[in-house]
Amino acid sequence: MPETMLGWTGLPHVTVSVVPGGLAPVRLLARVTLLPGILAGSILLGLVYGTDAIPLREVLHVLFPVSHACTARPLTAGLPNRNAVIICDLRLPGVIGALLVGAGLALAGALFQAVLRNPLADPYVIGTSAGAQLGVTLVFILPIQVALWGFGTLQLAAFAGALSTVLVVYLLARTPSGTPVVTLILAGFVISSFLISATTLLTYVGAGVSERLSHLLTWTLGGLDVQSWQELAVSAPCILAAGCAAVLMAPRLDLILLGEDQAAHLGVRVERLKLAAIVLASLLTALAVTIGGIIPFVGLVVPHAMRLIYGPRHQVLLPVSAVAGAAFVVLCDLIARVAVAPSVLPLGVVTAVVGAPFFLHLLRRSRRVFAI
Amino acid sequence: MSSPSELSGEGLTYAYDVRSVLTSADIAVRGGEAVALVGPNGSGKTTALRLLAGDLQPRAGQVHIDGHPLESLPARERARRIGVVPQTIDPQLAFSSGDLVAMGRAPYVGVLGGFSARDREAMRAALEDTDSTQLAPRPFRELSGGEQQRVALAMVLAQETRYLLLDEPTTHLDLHHQHALLELLRRLQRERELGLLAVMHDLNLAALYFDRLIVLANGRVVADGEPRHLLARDDVLEVFTAPLVVVSHPDAGVPQVLLRPGPNGG
Fold it and tell me: Given CB atoms, is B153 within the 8 Å cutoff of chain A?
């Protein structure tokens, strides 16, 4: 039996969750610290394990150089240098990249699911990721360089690709009562397949042109291949800002789940909100794709799991999805790096193995719920 | 002419593609008055309601609310004056019923969604008036159809609008629920002095529970007045194109319309 408490509305409220939202401060603390704790743990694991394991205290020593007290004894001067380089220049950018990809894709998924009122909307499923990828591939092949508001060419191209793809898919699939589950998937599948073929074609054609092709190939397979802190310097603040903007939309995203007409009756300017959410979700997808290529199903698995635990309110759902998405991709990236060490699996392979069964489960369920 | 305290549409005209569904219809409801839109299927009742709710833009004519042209009001301001009771809410929503009622305060709360004492009072009163206080903690999807309808009504009452629009609220309800809902609506309408405008399929319920009927046929308003006057007129009954007999309700004294059976019935 769920516990009754005074909820956020001030009305008696039962939390529909498996993490009991009782009044006990211990439980409240557990509820608030659980996800950040998991994320911190994932980050440490991601730094410790790789081709070689680096002892945790060395990792902590590199991360927190002032906290010598935390490590049992002072480290000898010569030994950790190599490990420090591995941590700072290889693993840490990779882990931060994974974290940003996860947060971005999970937020994008939650946004798409709300505005399209479709439980299966995910940046990968509806083709947004493929659009972003095509945009990036074009930049690799064509000699164009633009910069705008600190954005690089890559990010701009990915954003243009993602946004135009989602608009095309949406216009193909929309009906007055939302986007039917299966129509959206079909439209997304067709557009996505087309864009991926176009990307492959460009990659072949461009083989002679671009010396950056090997990087492109790794990236195309959904490999996290962060080569410099500089790549992250653009994406990280943008993802953070887009996340904050999404949270500001949260109450209106709740209302849109009542249906577009009813949301309008409650004072929401529906078309404006939908456009804003789609632009934001496309931006998040584009930023994630420029870091890690196409990573399937993160935007699907994470928000759904979080809905089960924390309920449907977007003011809670969006932040917890971002944190959980970050932890999920950091862990998937770790699996990708250690599963067949010293080789590295493409990250997208790992998330697909987890995400595909989950997608099928949701599809079966939504056939019952949203009768077609 | 629009007065400062009414929701009115003057000369409303609307067409889906080329098919005209509403032609220069004048429809008005004042605060404190219960009006039913009646008429045969396809007469334009629902279209008229959607025009007044602002869901559709009229091809010609103008909707006024309290003297302001509807489209001149910002969306939130409009939502503080007109509430629309949803015909259906996705019955699978995982929100608690209290969450849904809280959504009724959306036209009043800021971007970050903090509630004032006044917001909480409106929510409490809405739950109490619809007899759903004890439903607030429960997930919406676990409620029965009748309970979901009460919660939906509470959400719109929390909006504290002067006008309340409903589209066929009693369709698909059994006699018990028809009676409960209409009694509740009528009581709320009187207590809160609401202007109630409902599309009603059932002429007899409309005559029992509403002050005034607006009869639509083929997209035109053919009559507008008190039930006891309208249902005595042959030209009004003719629009329903069925053999009818009118009797007086033994308790309420209002006219009730019965079908006259053919040779195979009765």
Answer: no
